[in-house]
Specification:
The chain is α+β, with helices and mostly antiparallel strands. Helices cover about 25% and strands about 25% of the residues. The protein has helices at about 10-40, 90-100, 150-155, 205; strands spanning about 45, 60-65, 75-80, 120-125, 130-135, 140, 150, 180-185, 190-195, 215-225, 230. The termini are far apart.
């Protein structure tokens, strides 16, 4: 029968147990530290659609910071799911673990094929107090206290691209409308748009959104490497 020192030495067994406990505590601490950092400071988001092309490509990866919750005009924000469903604490914990182990690619709870069942990335273009309308997919904005409408590009102060193309006449009612009647945003109402104005759903479909749905500002697209950009 093969024997080893741990069969006879209580002191050695205790040292081995202490080493195992220390290693586990270090792993748990590292996991909790990284999870807290990803939840409260900076986390990664993978974009699965082309609704923000051409500035954010399909399957692109972004860094988002939840430290920034109040948007400026033209900022790109990570927006919570539209169906209003929430996950239980155990489900959220499993999601955090899976996302940590898979570089933010997999989270088993809360995902479905429904467009409203997962968070999206959209550009915030109109702020509380603005009066807006849309013509030919371009948003016209009259800020509170101003007398004239200006285009979204004249007011944002930061360059970005939008994706517009002509839809054949026989495609009537396909895609999102490029025209919208005048409306005024109330307190805590934000109007967000997809950069792909024909295919992307946004406030033209959902209506305005409140600040509670704005979960973090997109700071950077870091993948693919050829598309790296700061927002």
């Amino acid at each position: 029968m093969r024997q080893n020192v741990y069969d006879y030495s209580y002191e050695m067994r205790k040292k081995r147990r202490d080493k195992i406990c220390f290693a586990l505590s270090v792993l748990v601490s590292v996991f909790l530290g990284i999870s807290l950092f990803l939840h409260f400071v900076l986390f990664s988001v993978s974009v699965k659609s082309d609704t923000m092309e051409s500035d954010i490509v399909r399957n692109g990866s972004l860094f988002v910071s939840p430290l920034f919750r109040t948007p400026g005009r033209g900022d790109v924000f990570y927006i919570s799911r539209m169906d209003g469903e929430t996950l239980s604490a155990p489900q959220q914990a499993v999601n955090v673990l899976c996302r940590f182990l898979t570089a933010q690619k997999l989270y088993p709870f809360g995902w479905s094929q429904r467009m409203s069942s997962h968070p999206v990335v959209r550009r915030v273009l109109a702020l509380p107090g603005d009066t807006i309308y849309m013509k030919d997919y371009i948003l016209y904005i009259k800020p509170a206290g101003e007398n004239l409408f200006l285009t979204e590009f004249e007011l944002t102060g930061k360059p970005y691209n939008i994706h517009i193309y002509s839809v054949p006449a026989e495609w009537d009612n396909i895609g999102v409308s490029g025209n919208m009647a005048e409306m005024t945003l109330q307190k805590d109402e934000y109007f967000v748009l997809a950069d792909n104005r024909v295919e992307g759903t946004d406030s033209r479909v959902w209506g305005t959104i409140g600040s509670s749905r704005l979960k973090g500002k997109v700071l950077m697209e870091y993948f693919p490497l050829g598309k790296i950009r700061i927002f």
